[in-house]
Write the structure tokens for this entry.
Amino acid sequence: DSGTSTSISRGLDYAVARGAKVINMSFGGEDSSTEEMEAIQRALASGAVLVAASGNESKNQIYFPAAYLPVIAVGAVDQNDLLAGYSNFGKGLDFVAPGGEDAFPTVLNAIIGPTYDTSPTPTPAWDQEIGTSFAAPHVSALAALLIAQGWRDPEGIRLRMAQTADDLGASGWDERFGYGRINADRATRTDVAPGPNPYQGGSGVLGKPFAYPNPFFPSQDPHTVLVFKARAGLAVRVRIFDGEDRRVWERVLDPNRVGTTNELPWDGRSGQGDRVGSGVYLVVVEQEGALEYG
């Protein structure tokens, strides 16, 4: 029921070492941890989809690890698609999924699932539960279904979910429902064309990023510098895509490393350490739900 940053980091590394493609984290707290963030970076570099519960304190605050930018943050809705009274919400929320409602769950307003009766000896049992911890696995399961269909890039999987989600609340992304309640039927149907990209750039929060040199010729100079504006003191996610829209590199900068104007060096190597080819690359900068491209 509880764990330290060290045990969480070891759990992530354990999952990555055994080839996990989806990692569900139905736990959380208010405090971030460098140790956890580094483990999440390693999991992300392995290609795993990371999903976590937003928290059950009815707060306008996403708990960690869901609040880390690479992680898909999931809140909970009830059987009527209303935000569950306990569900945390706010900037950084990606999706909502069924999590149940009410202090006394019933089969109509709870998540029914396997558990263990520990008295007098551990025995498999079924129980009725509520919480964002039970909403997050819906998103993890959908990620696994998409991977089974051939999807590989975690960001592509997140985007497919966003483009096929049922929009709730205010039109588009909002702090209470994120991009909406996931719709597994729409997301996995090959006859459903993706909707418009719901990620909103041009928000004024970020300045348009650029890189120099770009085009990039690593055989001549193996280094380039990424330049972007952001809100100081807030975490930033920076990604680089090649001409075929394949993500080749990613970094998440801790809040204490982010200023108004930022320069980030790149050595021309992919996340796997391979030297990339010459060409034009796309830089994507994300901060608190706002994206800019350059």
